[in-house]
Amino acid sequence: MYTFESLRLQYKPKIPNQLKHLLGLQAKPVYCPEKIPTELKTLFPKSYNFPLIEFEFTDVKKKFPLKVGVVFSGGPAPGGNNVLAGIFDAIKKFQPNSQLIGFLDGPDGLLKRKTRNIFQEDIAQIKNLGGFDFLSTGRGKIETIEQKEVALKIVEDLSLDGLIIIGGDDSNTNAAALAEFFLEKGCKTKVIGVPKTIDGDLKNQYIEISFGFDTASKTYAHTIGSLLKDALSQKKYYFFVKLMGRSASHIALECALATHPTYTLISEEIKEEKQNLRDVVVLLSDIICHRAKENKNYGLFLIPEGSIEFFNDVQTLIREINNYPKENLTQVIKNHLSKEAKTLFEDLPQEIQKQFLLERDPHGNVQVTKIETERLILELVQKELKKRKEEGSYQGSFSPQAIFLGYEGRSAMPSNFDANYCYALGLTAALLIKHGLTGYMAGITHLNEPVEAWTPIGLPLISMMGFENRQGKEKAVIKKALVDLKGAAFDLYKEWRLKWAYEDHFQFPPPIQFFGPHEFSDQLPLTLKLDAMKTNEYRYVM
Amino acid sequence: MYTFESLRLQYKPKIPNQLKHLLGLQAKPVYCPEKIPTELKTLFPKSYNFPLIEFEFTDVKKKFPLKVGVVFSGGPAPGGNNVLAGIFDAIKKFQPNSQLIGFLDGPDGLLKRKTRNIFQEDIAQIKNLGGFDFLSTGRGKIETIEQKEVALKIVEDLSLDGLIIIGGDDSNTNAAALAEFFLEKGCKTKVIGVPKTIDGDLKNQYIEISFGFDTASKTYAHTIGSLLKDALSQKKYYFFVKLMGRSASHIALECALATHPTYTLISEEIKEEKQNLRDVVVLLSDIICHRAKENKNYGLFLIPEGSIEFFNDVQTLIREINNYPKENLTQVIKNHLSKEAKTLFEDLPQEIQKQFLLERDPHGNVQVTKIETERLILELVQKELKKRKEEGSYQGSFSPQAIFLGYEGRSAMPSNFDANYCYALGLTAALLIKHGLTGYMAGITHLNEPVEAWTPIGLPLISMMGFENRQGKEKAVIKKALVDLKGAAFDLYKEWRLKWAYEDHFQFPPPIQFFGPHEFSDQLPLTLKLDAMKTNEYRYVM
């Protein structure tokens, strides 16, 4: 059957000029990009002072085979297959006898030595397609000393020159530790990370964006645009749309800039301003009342998945509930909660109360990701509006709909941008291994320029690390990049949002296009474009 | 700002050859397509014996101006703007002084004489874009004699030559009655219907599909494909996806054929086989258990929005509950429900029980569309699996997710197919008015052939009518087309579904493409293709 997938397999990712002649490239250490805290030196004595790597052309063309292992880690993101394609094509160019070995089912599969040799025919069947189904993935970790020992034994048994870990912040934190561990043990296997996450929270001055963010946010933005069009068409519904994206609000901000919905919550701002859930309920209700006066009883609110854990009052409630085992909680609530926490709890819809009480993670903590924030906020707003209606301060009609956008964005067919970006990341990851580098993240800079000008780099994983309190302990981790409240993207949103709230400035992005005019089929994420602009420029964008 | 919408405005809908030379076309009565029941003759003495209309070329080119009114009726569907564009371009070709007047906010707006003159500049801003926001729509009706009198006065005041009603089965039923009424009153205004509904339930041998169905089902099928890819990638989730589409399961069947999910409920079959909710819960649980044995703890079920009202046991429960006012229902359930109904009710999750008890429509009936069927079935399956696990007959893991796909499909940017189809429908509607025809639906046949060969027709609205029991009364209505359980599309699905349930045959349709290879950017709905095939052909399609 001739499917769109078969058509898509024929797409040839665009290749940056610097990566067109892989054999002549030489790694060029540049400088240590960040000041490394002393504590990190102690933890990573072998790898703490690695330099940033760029590449330059030379006449020397060294050809030798590489044996490389690769593993997907964590949730899927569009473009993973193209990372595999890039690695494969690069090592085969280094020497046709090179081998690529995929570990199945994520880090757990690596530890169980579940492998699959990857051949040209495989790559030809998966290139430019979405999903992590070719190797499958998992949320396992290689973290403890025992796990690292098992991994060491396996990579040595397989005689791997390199191990490429395609994952998010946690997976790359573990990649850094594994690289250090292999160095200590004199193991030849180089460990390279590739920045994967639709959440967009793995980025910094060198890693401009993680792969998958573009496709996922474009997928959501298209749906949001259609919902906005629907809201306008019948002038009847308020959509409360929760967006996947964990703690950070990058996806919400990107979608807000792409669609100009009625209002968008930004978790980082909620935290910074110490907002209570109640404040947001009042804010949204105010917007609804204001619009009702102009006979606009419709709209759309964007709610980041992680927002629930940033509300000041919710944090207090969760902290207090976490103090008690989940048995007898009804008694606890009656007798032990503070007045503030108790008031909030009693204000919650029954179903949500249950979610607070019943779902606990393995550490016994309330599982905030399981709380249906979009329904929670919807119901509280509904209650507030009912009250206002009784008081006579609101006369509108309110038909709300709760919607969650998530899974469909993680495994969608990658946009041309993600297809190109991932292929270049794969080539770069292989290059880093060829040059004997370990403890690096493969990166591509200058993404805001045409693909030809994209520039491969190796960024020391250590340079991305800092200390975070995790379950009561200070731990060295790759810092999650949150929305920069002083950055161009948020600044622009903040400037416009009240206009968007009261007037209608809805935008309707198309479904992802793989063909047609370049400016649409190859468009970058807006936040990426904005972040690359100087302050004075971005004010004229919208 | 140069948006994708501005690009899309430049798309020129393809025009059927027969509609390329509008001025020379003459209406040609063919024959009365259906035997009309005597009762309809009594109800529609003026219009019961209208013939089917085709068009033929002549040398006569009559030019005269038309004044036409147009109204959207009911929920939005992609392509509505192109119907307006077609009408506009046609009447301007008939004579440049022709006028198009839009009624705002649906039939209610017509009755309130809320109008807007439509100009070339308007059409240039809305062509090929989704949504009914240009005129807005509403669920009002023109049904009672008083309403018809008001409508009559307004179309006479405005001196309209024609009134075009863009709507579904109910709206076109009312269009037929309005046409008859205008004839009785000697009013010159011709009433023409245009078949609009994403649900796909307005079709017959002449109306091959309603507009909007293609875009909506492609929008959903793309999302479903991405969810299937996600299910495969992490091998962890079962998605329970409810699809918009009211009583009929056309959208579910179309999406099933496009994506080959684990299993798809078809309401018409549930009804035909007198299945209980319990039967379906057992069936889905059996599939899950079977797959778990092969370590496949993931999958996706499609659930048509309307399925809930077709389960035999749910029908009994609803019927019994409808007998009592919503006050004191707890008592009713204890004391008055039959054993069967009571058992079912007590088996339901608490939230769903509430939905059965609390939501009533204006006639006091349980509002089945408000029941979250996807969550209901999910929770009952979860309960069943828990029981089986305790009994030892099931060892799998079960992580379910409930998802509803609906509003985003109704107002999406129309596919090339819907853009072309709607434009041709608009041209045809105007032609019918030009030829003094009333009580007709504008139609295009031969949709399965290239656009050039599409053929405009006028189908007498009466020929689509039959009698249905509505709130205890026999009423003449345009029959809702349900999924034909003897048709090619269902037959094919039935043949494959167990294979799809146990093995994985997932398909991953792309987001709607407006550019690129013709076979993808201009693809027809699969059910339309299948229905056009002869029995022997369609078995070789999949």
TrEMBL record, chains A, B:
At which positions is substrate bound? T197, I198, D199, K236, Y237, M244, G245, R246, E305, Y407, E408, G409, R410
Q: Which residues form the active site?
A: D199 (proton acceptor)
Cite the annotated pathway. Carbohydrate degradation; glycolysis; D-glyceraldehyde 3-phosphate and glycerone phosphate from D-glucose: step 3/4
One function term, GO molecular function aspect: 6-phosphofructokinase activity
Q: Which reaction does it catalyse?
A: beta-D-fructose 6-phosphate + diphosphate = beta-D-fructose 1,6-bisphosphate + phosphate + H(+)
Keyword field: Cytoplasm, Glycolysis, Kinase, Magnesium, Metal-binding, Transferase
Concerning InterPro entries, the annotation shows: ATP_PFK, PfpB_PPi_PFK, Phosphofructokinase_dom, PKF_sf
Cellular compartment(s): Cytoplasm
**Which residues does diphosphate bind?**
G75
* Residues carrying the site annotation Important for catalytic activity: K196
Q: What is its EC number?
A: 2.7.1.90
Cofactor(s) essential for the protein: Mg(2+)
What is the name attached to this protein's record?
Pyrophosphate--fructose 6-phosphate 1-phosphotransferase
Say which species the protein is native to: Candidatus Criblamydia sequanensis CRIB-18
Q: Which gene encodes it?
A: pfkA
